[in-house]
Amino acid sequence: MPLLYLLLFSLLTMGLVFWIPKYRLRRAVRQPFPGNYSRILRRNIPAYARMPTHLQLQLKRLIKQFLHEKKFIGCDGFRINDEVRVTIAGKACMLLLNRPASVFPDLKLVLVYPSAFIAPRTELGAGGIVTHANQTLSGESWSDGRVILAWDHVQQRNTDFIDGHNVVLHEFAHQLDSETGAPNGAPQLMSKEKYQRWSAVMMHEFRKLQEAAAYHMESAMDYYGATNPAEFFAVATETFFEKSWQMAEFHPALFAELREYYRVDPREWH
């Protein structure tokens, strides 16, 4: 009999372990969206005010889940407040609208510096020579559950949603890319046919951007996207959301792929 009680207690404990987090999440998502949060969205994400109501409601729900699940940490004396949390969560969750996806399931921490931060780099060069250097960054995405952002770079884009540069969109695109393993420019697409079409379009556009960067040709996309396929996807995401009309005109196949993947058309918000 004691063994039976022990088994029942273990099953009950396991059930509570799985049930309690889900209950807490449902309770958090059901809470009313604070009025000051809405004001932050309208002030810091210009596209929000031009979204249809159903997308605004989706975004609010996603933000509540993001804020419930992710921990924000201020670095170098930076103080985290509602404006920081809601602005970053709002921009990140724009990538999840209309998509039956969890909210960046591998992400645990968002580290925020007051300004551009320095990250050490180790590179293996020709002949096996190892070099050490420091790189100044405005953002970085890690596959171990961290995103690092410089608040001044997040903030300086708050009133400008048309220049194609958005560090939050960029780093959280890397998070989506990482959900299938090491970031390689191919996020989760659900079917072999979609991967084949995605690969063909992305590789063609990636090579076009490499050529544009090499010869300093005009491009709707930042040359940084020519670095590698992972950076190309992140830069393409920034361009899709912030320069959607230009992308649709000059890169129609790429725009179509991203519109199918993100399931929104940002041209409606500009």
TrEMBL record:
This is Mlc titration factor A. GO terms for molecular function: aminopeptidase activity; metallopeptidase activity. InterPro entries: MetalloPept_cat_dom_sf, MtfA_fam, MtfA_N. CDD domains: Peptidase_M90_mtfA. One of its GO terms (cellular component) is cytosol. It comes from Undibacterium terreum.
